[in-house]
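We were asked to recover a plausible sequence for a given structure. The inputs and outputs are reproduced exactly as logged, with field labels preserved.

PROBLEM: sequence recovery
POSITIONS: 268
GIVEN STRUCTURE:
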């Protein structure tokens, strides 16, 4: 788990910065898992192949990376009209607020969260990202002198419940033995969706959950998010319940499904 002692100061940017080249599309083939013993910034991480480069899947290491992950989430989950007055300021304020809240959850400052980890998928910054210049700009971080881009992210939360969400019922509510966890903030950059990265991130979180001794893993998904439901079904999650319509209206959002994964049945 990324603990407070691992929160490192952002590294200074190098003198020269490669720019993403414009094009008509982002040419990214389907991601494929491969084993690696790399000792680069991806050292110890699961790797995926992408145009011959490695997509590293791992728990975050630096604050710079954590901030880049938060920016990706704001970019993914919130939409603003291009001509909206103050839209950029709103995005910046939202990212700053979530960045602080995520640090508090990871460092154990928030009640109910026993343990939290941010898991990211990152790639080196290169011209192969092509027209995804905004993604490169917003979601970039520097580690050991190398510029990388966060292209996928999620949180694994060991806790009894998530605020404003349905509560899972397994394996019970014994405060002394929290073996339940929830996935949250699952996102993949829009330019790179449907390439297998979402499935790989969830799979990485399942491995970490096993290390934590989690027996029951949960995720919430909007009832109209068909792509998300397919992803979680493919990952082994099954239906447990759904949010009442009145509660969704009160919270001003689409109804959520609660999906459950029995970690005891997951292959080692």
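RECOVERED SEQUENCE:
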């Amino acid at each position: 788990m990324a603990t407070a002692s691992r929160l490192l100061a952002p590294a200074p940017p190098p003198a020269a910065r490669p720019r993403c080249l414009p094009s008509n599309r982002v040419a990214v083939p389907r991601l494929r898992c491969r084993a690696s013993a790399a000792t680069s910034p991806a050292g110890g991480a699961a790797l995926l192949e992408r145009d011959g480069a490695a997509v590293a899947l791992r728990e975050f290491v630096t604050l710079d990376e954590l901030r880049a992950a938060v920016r990706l989430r704001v970019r993914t989950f919130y939409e603003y009209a291009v001509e909206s007055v103050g839209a950029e300021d709103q995005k910046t304020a939202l990212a700053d607020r979530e960045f602080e809240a995520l640090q508090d959850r990871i460092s154990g400052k928030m009640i109910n969260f026993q343990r939290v980890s941010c898991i990211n998928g990152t790639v080196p910054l290169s011209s192969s990202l092509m027209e995804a210049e905004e993604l490169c700009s917003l979601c970039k971080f520097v580690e050991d002198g190398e510029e990388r881009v966060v292209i996928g992210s999620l949180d694994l939360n060991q806790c009894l419940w998530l605020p404003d969400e349905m509560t899972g019922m397994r394996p019970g509510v014994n405060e002394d033995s929290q073996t339940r966890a929830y996935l949250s903030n699952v996102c993949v950059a829009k330019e790179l969706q449907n390439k297998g990265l979402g499935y790989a991130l969830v799979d990485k979180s399942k491995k970490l959950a096993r290390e934590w001794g989690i027996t029951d893993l949960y995720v919430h998904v909007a009832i109209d998010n068909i792509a998300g439901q397919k992803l979680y079904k493919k990952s082994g999650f099954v239906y447990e319940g759904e949010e009442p319509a009145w509660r969704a209206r009160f919270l001003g959002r689409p109804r959520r499904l609660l999906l459950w994964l029995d970690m005891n049945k997951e292959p080692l």
